[in-house]
Design a protein that fits this description.
This protein is an alpha+beta fold. The protein contains three helices and 17 strands. Bound molecules: 2-acetamido-2-deoxy-beta-D-glucopyranose.
Length: 292
Amino acid sequence: MASGVRGQRAFSSRARSLITLVMMFSAALLVFLIFVIIGVPAALNNPVSQSSGATIALKIPQITRGQKREGDAAVQPYVEVLSWEPRAFLYYNMLTDAECEHLINLAKPNMQKSTVVDSATGRSKDSRVRTSSGTFLNRGQDPIISGIEKKIAEFTFIPVEHGEGLQVLHYEVGQKYEPHYDYFHDSFNTKNGGQRIATVLMYLSDVESGGETVFPASKVNGSLVPHWDELSDCAKTGLSVRPRKGMALLFWSMSPDVKLDSKSLHGGCPVIEGNKWSATKWLHVNKYSVPS
Ligand SMILES: *[C@@H]1O[C@H](CO)[C@@H](O)[C@H](O)[C@H]1NC(C)=O
Protein backbone atom coordinates (compact mmCIF):
# COMPACT_ATOMS: atom_id res chain seq x y z
CA MET A 1 0.00 0.00 0.00
CA ALA A 2 2.66 2.48 1.15
CA SER A 3 4.89 1.51 -1.73
CA GLY A 4 1.92 2.11 -4.13
CA VAL A 5 1.57 5.75 -2.91
CA ARG A 6 5.31 6.31 -3.27
CA GLY A 7 5.07 4.94 -6.83
CA GLN A 8 2.22 7.34 -7.69
CA ARG A 9 4.13 10.30 -6.27
CA ALA A 10 7.24 9.36 -8.23
CA PHE A 11 5.12 8.99 -11.37
CA SER A 12 3.41 12.37 -11.05
CA SER A 13 6.74 14.12 -10.36
CA ARG A 14 8.23 12.48 -13.47
CA ALA A 15 5.16 13.58 -15.47
CA ARG A 16 5.50 17.14 -14.17
CA SER A 17 9.16 17.40 -15.22
CA LEU A 18 8.27 15.89 -18.59
CA ILE A 19 5.51 18.48 -19.12
CA THR A 20 7.92 21.29 -18.08
CA LEU A 21 10.47 19.99 -20.58
CA VAL A 22 7.90 19.85 -23.39
CA MET A 23 6.74 23.39 -22.58
CA MET A 24 10.30 24.74 -22.57
CA PHE A 25 10.99 23.03 -25.88
CA SER A 26 7.79 24.49 -27.42
CA ALA A 27 8.71 27.98 -26.22
CA ALA A 28 12.20 27.66 -27.73
CA LEU A 29 10.67 26.39 -31.00
CA LEU A 30 8.23 29.34 -31.05
CA VAL A 31 11.05 31.89 -30.56
CA PHE A 32 13.06 30.16 -33.30
CA LEU A 33 10.09 30.22 -35.72
CA ILE A 34 9.37 33.89 -35.03
CA PHE A 35 13.04 34.65 -35.79
CA VAL A 36 12.99 32.65 -39.00
CA ILE A 37 9.67 34.06 -40.24
CA ILE A 38 10.25 37.71 -39.35
CA GLY A 39 13.90 38.23 -38.54
CA VAL A 40 15.88 36.68 -41.39
CA PRO A 41 13.87 37.95 -44.40
CA ALA A 42 13.86 41.46 -42.90
CA ALA A 43 17.64 41.34 -42.63
CA LEU A 44 18.00 40.04 -46.19
CA ASN A 45 15.64 42.56 -47.76
CA ASN A 46 17.24 45.44 -45.99
CA PRO A 47 20.98 44.80 -45.78
CA VAL A 48 21.88 48.52 -45.79
CA SER A 49 20.04 49.08 -42.52
CA GLN A 50 22.47 46.77 -40.73
CA SER A 51 25.11 48.26 -38.46
CA SER A 52 27.80 50.35 -40.13
CA GLY A 53 30.31 47.69 -39.08
CA ALA A 54 28.95 45.30 -41.74
CA THR A 55 31.34 44.63 -44.59
CA ILE A 56 30.85 46.26 -47.97
CA ALA A 57 30.01 42.84 -49.48
CA LEU A 58 26.76 42.61 -47.51
CA LYS A 59 25.60 45.91 -48.98
CA ILE A 60 26.22 45.04 -52.63
CA PRO A 61 23.11 43.90 -54.52
CA GLN A 62 23.64 40.90 -56.79
CA ILE A 63 22.45 40.25 -60.34
CA THR A 64 22.84 37.26 -62.63
CA ARG A 65 24.84 37.44 -65.83
CA GLY A 66 23.44 39.71 -68.53
CA GLN A 67 20.88 41.42 -66.26
CA LYS A 68 20.78 45.21 -66.38
CA ARG A 69 20.23 47.88 -63.74
CA GLU A 70 18.65 51.21 -64.62
CA GLY A 71 18.71 54.76 -63.27
CA ASP A 72 20.26 55.45 -59.85
CA ALA A 73 20.81 51.74 -59.19
CA ALA A 74 23.10 51.55 -62.23
CA VAL A 75 25.66 53.90 -60.68
CA GLN A 76 25.74 52.21 -57.25
CA PRO A 77 28.04 49.26 -56.49
CA TYR A 78 26.51 45.89 -57.46
CA VAL A 79 27.88 42.51 -58.39
CA GLU A 80 27.16 40.32 -61.42
CA VAL A 81 27.77 36.58 -61.08
CA LEU A 82 29.61 35.80 -64.32
CA SER A 83 30.58 32.18 -63.90
CA TRP A 84 31.07 29.42 -61.31
CA GLU A 85 33.58 27.56 -63.50
CA PRO A 86 35.83 29.51 -63.14
CA ARG A 87 34.47 31.47 -60.20
CA ALA A 88 34.26 34.98 -61.63
CA PHE A 89 32.32 37.99 -60.34
CA LEU A 90 32.07 41.49 -61.74
CA TYR A 91 31.74 44.39 -59.28
CA TYR A 92 30.33 47.51 -60.90
CA ASN A 93 31.10 51.06 -59.70
CA MET A 94 33.70 49.87 -57.21
CA LEU A 95 36.30 52.58 -57.85
CA THR A 96 35.44 56.27 -58.08
CA ASP A 97 36.67 58.32 -61.05
CA ALA A 98 39.06 60.10 -58.65
CA GLU A 99 40.52 56.76 -57.50
CA CYS A 100 41.01 55.61 -61.12
CA GLU A 101 42.69 58.87 -62.12
CA HIS A 102 44.89 58.85 -59.02
CA LEU A 103 46.26 55.39 -59.90
CA ILE A 104 46.92 56.37 -63.52
CA ASN A 105 48.68 59.61 -62.51
CA LEU A 106 50.89 57.82 -59.97
CA ALA A 107 51.83 55.14 -62.50
CA LYS A 108 52.37 57.27 -65.61
CA PRO A 109 55.92 58.52 -64.87
CA ASN A 110 57.20 54.97 -64.18
CA MET A 111 55.72 52.81 -66.95
CA GLN A 112 57.96 50.01 -68.23
CA LYS A 113 57.51 47.32 -70.83
CA SER A 114 55.62 44.39 -69.24
CA THR A 115 57.35 41.06 -68.71
CA VAL A 116 56.12 37.55 -67.95
CA VAL A 117 57.46 35.01 -65.46
CA ASP A 118 59.77 32.40 -66.98
CA SER A 119 58.35 29.12 -65.67
CA ALA A 120 61.79 27.44 -65.84
CA THR A 121 63.72 30.04 -63.82
CA GLY A 122 60.91 31.96 -62.08
CA ARG A 123 62.47 35.22 -63.30
CA SER A 124 60.87 37.98 -65.37
CA LYS A 125 61.39 37.99 -69.10
CA ASP A 126 60.27 39.96 -72.15
CA SER A 127 57.59 38.34 -74.21
CA ARG A 128 55.45 38.71 -77.31
CA VAL A 129 52.45 37.30 -75.44
CA ARG A 130 52.30 40.39 -73.28
CA THR A 131 52.82 43.71 -75.03
CA SER A 132 51.51 46.23 -72.50
CA SER A 133 53.53 48.52 -70.25
CA GLY A 134 53.16 48.71 -66.50
CA THR A 135 54.44 49.59 -63.06
CA PHE A 136 54.01 48.45 -59.46
CA LEU A 137 52.68 50.64 -56.66
CA ASN A 138 53.52 49.83 -53.05
CA ARG A 139 50.91 48.28 -50.79
CA GLY A 140 49.54 51.09 -48.61
CA GLN A 141 51.60 53.63 -50.55
CA ASP A 142 49.18 56.46 -49.75
CA PRO A 143 45.74 56.86 -48.14
CA ILE A 144 43.86 56.50 -51.46
CA ILE A 145 45.64 53.23 -52.27
CA SER A 146 45.03 52.00 -48.71
CA GLY A 147 41.33 52.79 -49.15
CA ILE A 148 41.17 50.79 -52.40
CA GLU A 149 43.01 47.86 -50.77
CA LYS A 150 40.63 47.89 -47.80
CA LYS A 151 37.65 47.83 -50.18
CA ILE A 152 39.17 44.84 -52.03
CA ALA A 153 39.72 43.01 -48.73
CA GLU A 154 36.08 43.60 -47.76
CA PHE A 155 34.52 42.20 -50.91
CA THR A 156 36.98 39.32 -51.45
CA PHE A 157 37.10 38.42 -47.72
CA ILE A 158 40.89 38.14 -48.09
CA PRO A 159 42.93 40.36 -45.74
CA VAL A 160 45.00 43.27 -47.13
CA GLU A 161 48.21 41.51 -45.96
CA HIS A 162 47.67 38.69 -48.49
CA GLY A 163 47.91 41.07 -51.45
CA GLU A 164 50.82 42.09 -53.66
CA GLY A 165 51.23 45.79 -54.43
CA LEU A 166 48.90 47.03 -57.19
CA GLN A 167 50.20 46.68 -60.72
CA VAL A 168 48.97 49.39 -63.10
CA LEU A 169 48.93 48.43 -66.79
CA HIS A 170 48.51 50.42 -69.98
CA TYR A 171 47.49 48.89 -73.32
CA GLU A 172 47.55 50.94 -76.50
CA VAL A 173 45.93 50.00 -79.82
CA GLY A 174 47.01 46.45 -80.77
CA GLN A 175 48.44 45.64 -77.33
CA LYS A 176 47.20 42.52 -75.56
CA TYR A 177 47.96 39.75 -73.09
CA GLU A 178 47.54 36.21 -74.46
CA PRO A 179 45.53 33.77 -72.30
CA HIS A 180 47.50 32.65 -69.25
CA TYR A 181 47.09 31.59 -65.62
CA ASP A 182 47.82 33.88 -62.69
CA TYR A 183 48.97 30.96 -60.52
CA PHE A 184 52.63 29.99 -60.64
CA HIS A 185 54.21 26.86 -62.10
CA ASP A 186 57.51 27.33 -60.25
CA SER A 187 58.55 27.13 -56.59
CA PHE A 188 60.53 30.41 -56.72
CA ASN A 189 57.45 32.66 -56.94
CA THR A 190 55.40 30.86 -54.29
CA LYS A 191 58.03 31.36 -51.55
CA ASN A 192 56.41 34.65 -50.53
CA GLY A 193 52.77 34.12 -49.56
CA GLY A 194 52.29 30.74 -51.25
CA GLN A 195 50.23 30.33 -54.41
CA ARG A 196 48.09 33.13 -55.86
CA ILE A 197 44.51 32.25 -54.94
CA ALA A 198 42.55 35.08 -56.61
CA THR A 199 42.92 38.17 -58.76
CA VAL A 200 41.07 41.48 -58.72
CA LEU A 201 41.37 43.25 -62.06
CA MET A 202 40.20 46.85 -61.97
CA TYR A 203 39.45 48.85 -65.09
CA LEU A 204 40.65 52.45 -64.76
CA SER A 205 39.36 53.65 -68.14
CA ASP A 206 36.66 52.90 -70.69
CA VAL A 207 37.90 51.42 -73.97
CA GLU A 208 36.14 52.43 -77.21
CA SER A 209 36.60 49.00 -78.79
CA GLY A 210 38.40 45.75 -77.93
CA GLY A 211 40.52 45.29 -74.77
CA GLU A 212 38.03 42.84 -73.24
CA THR A 213 39.13 40.32 -70.62
CA VAL A 214 38.33 36.85 -71.93
CA PHE A 215 38.08 33.45 -70.20
CA PRO A 216 38.43 30.93 -73.05
CA ALA A 217 38.02 27.88 -70.77
CA SER A 218 34.86 29.04 -68.98
CA LYS A 219 31.90 26.65 -68.90
CA VAL A 220 29.54 29.59 -69.51
CA ASN A 221 28.15 30.07 -73.01
CA GLY A 222 29.68 33.43 -73.86
CA SER A 223 27.15 34.27 -76.56
CA LEU A 224 24.22 34.54 -74.16
CA VAL A 225 24.60 38.29 -73.51
CA PRO A 226 22.68 41.16 -75.14
CA HIS A 227 25.92 42.92 -76.20
CA TRP A 228 27.40 39.89 -78.00
CA ASP A 229 27.51 41.68 -81.38
CA GLU A 230 29.55 44.55 -79.93
CA LEU A 231 32.41 42.28 -78.80
CA SER A 232 35.72 41.86 -80.64
CA ASP A 233 36.47 38.50 -82.30
CA CYS A 234 38.96 37.74 -79.54
CA ALA A 235 36.29 38.35 -76.89
CA LYS A 236 33.98 35.90 -78.68
CA THR A 237 36.35 33.00 -77.90
CA GLY A 238 34.88 32.68 -74.39
CA LEU A 239 33.23 34.44 -71.50
CA SER A 240 34.29 38.06 -71.69
CA VAL A 241 34.14 41.35 -69.82
CA ARG A 242 34.11 44.75 -71.50
CA PRO A 243 36.30 47.26 -69.64
CA ARG A 244 34.36 50.07 -67.96
CA LYS A 245 36.00 52.67 -65.74
CA GLY A 246 35.58 51.78 -62.04
CA MET A 247 34.64 48.09 -62.54
CA ALA A 248 36.47 45.37 -60.62
CA LEU A 249 36.62 41.79 -61.89
CA LEU A 250 37.26 39.16 -59.21
CA PHE A 251 38.21 35.66 -60.31
CA TRP A 252 39.66 32.71 -58.42
CA SER A 253 42.74 30.79 -59.57
CA MET A 254 42.03 28.11 -56.98
CA SER A 255 38.87 26.15 -56.23
CA PRO A 256 37.40 25.92 -52.71
CA ASP A 257 39.39 22.71 -52.14
CA VAL A 258 42.54 24.77 -52.96
CA LYS A 259 43.32 22.97 -56.22
CA LEU A 260 44.59 25.07 -59.13
CA ASP A 261 41.65 25.90 -61.42
CA SER A 262 42.64 25.54 -65.08
CA LYS A 263 39.35 27.19 -66.07
CA SER A 264 40.78 30.45 -64.69
CA LEU A 265 42.72 30.80 -67.96
CA HIS A 266 42.24 34.42 -69.08
CA GLY A 267 43.65 36.98 -71.48
CA GLY A 268 43.50 40.64 -72.41
CA CYS A 269 42.15 41.06 -75.95
CA PRO A 270 43.94 43.52 -78.25
CA VAL A 271 42.74 47.11 -77.93
CA ILE A 272 41.10 48.08 -81.23
CA GLU A 273 40.29 51.70 -80.51
CA GLY A 274 41.25 53.88 -77.53
CA ASN A 275 43.45 53.19 -74.51
CA LYS A 276 43.09 50.65 -71.74
CA TRP A 277 44.28 51.33 -68.21
CA SER A 278 43.89 48.66 -65.57
CA ALA A 279 45.13 47.83 -62.08
CA THR A 280 45.69 44.28 -60.86
CA LYS A 281 45.67 43.04 -57.28
CA TRP A 282 47.00 39.52 -56.86
CA LEU A 283 45.94 37.80 -53.66
CA HIS A 284 47.86 34.92 -52.08
CA VAL A 285 46.91 31.96 -49.96
CA ASN A 286 49.10 33.29 -47.11
CA LYS A 287 50.36 36.69 -46.01
CA TYR A 288 52.53 38.29 -48.64
CA SER A 289 55.43 40.30 -47.25
CA VAL A 290 56.32 43.60 -48.90
CA PRO A 291 59.35 45.82 -48.30
CA SER A 292 58.60 48.35 -45.56
C1 LIG B 1 25.43 29.07 -76.97
O1 LIG B 1 24.14 29.63 -77.15
C2 LIG B 1 23.80 29.90 -78.50
C3 LIG B 1 22.49 30.66 -78.52
O2 LIG B 1 21.50 30.00 -77.79
C4 LIG B 1 23.77 28.60 -79.28
O3 LIG B 1 23.46 28.85 -80.63
C5 LIG B 1 25.14 27.94 -79.19
O4 LIG B 1 25.11 26.68 -79.81
C6 LIG B 1 25.57 27.76 -77.72
N1 LIG B 1 26.94 27.29 -77.69
C7 LIG B 1 27.32 26.26 -76.94
C8 LIG B 1 28.77 25.92 -77.01
O5 LIG B 1 26.56 25.62 -76.24
